[in-house]
Amino acid sequence: MIHTQDIFSITSETTFNTLALDIFKFQFENNTVYRSFCDLLYKHPSDIRLIEDIPFLPIQFFKSHQVLSSKAQIEDVFSSSGTTGTVTSKHYVTDLNLYEQSFNKGFQQFYGNISDYVVLALLPNYLEREGSSLIYMVNTMIQASQHSESGFYLNDLEALKTQLIRSDSEGKKILLIGVSFALLDLVEQYQFNLKNTIIMETGGMKGRRKELVRDELHHILKSGFGVTHIHSEYGMTELLSQAYSKGNGLFRCPNWMRVLTRDPEDALTHQKLGKTGGINVIDLANVNSCSFVATQDLGRVYDNHSFEVIGRFDSSDIRGCNLMVL
Asked: Is the CB of residue 292 less than 8 Å from the CB of residue 282?
């Protein structure tokens, strides 16, 4: 039996590694999709002694299977965004309280209590659809904020501009969180000189604009908002935890999350620190689904557990996923 309090009380590498191995065994025994994947790789708990030995489930399985390690009632289903006609990932969540604990405690680890912030959300393309885990997270943060100014701004950039300038000039701590294209829209229309605001981009042009490399995007946003750093959030539909960057392109994970990289040519071989590879995520909060996910992102991991994201695999380039015939 895995106890939630153990996940959020991790304070050392030893406790993380021990719990990760325990959760692997639990999910091997209780998740039929993950068990079948491990069986095809001839991986059994008796073979797994290090977290590097744990098989990582390709994220595409969330598009074709119900990935669950729990028999509890499903409380919500989060789905990824996608163009019309495309198959989207679905994350079946049996414990929304666990998700809320994860994103609240994760934010607190890096930024303090969300209740201290005015939370302004610029997430229009997500608000226009149902099933977004990002919208669920930000909406919960807005409700937890002790400032009446907090809220979503769909397409009213003028109202957002007015509120942002007013709250910032009053010395309030502000979190402006938004998708990249919407933040660019805002600074193309208005110029800011903010002193008390964290600008946090969640990625995503979603076909609305030409894709920009991170440095170019952040340069435009820093100039437009008058700030020295652009923060970033790294999360995905299939997980329950997020990593954060405070502006240098390096993300840090909360204590119950880790990122490893795999060889792009051999999905079962891990890359050395500092070498580019496919991003594998360990999210121990995802105990009721799958905590070991091989993403389609490319990145590098460094010796202090920080990592950077440098791109994505082309779909025709994904290797080592020919076991997806389950």
From this structure: yes
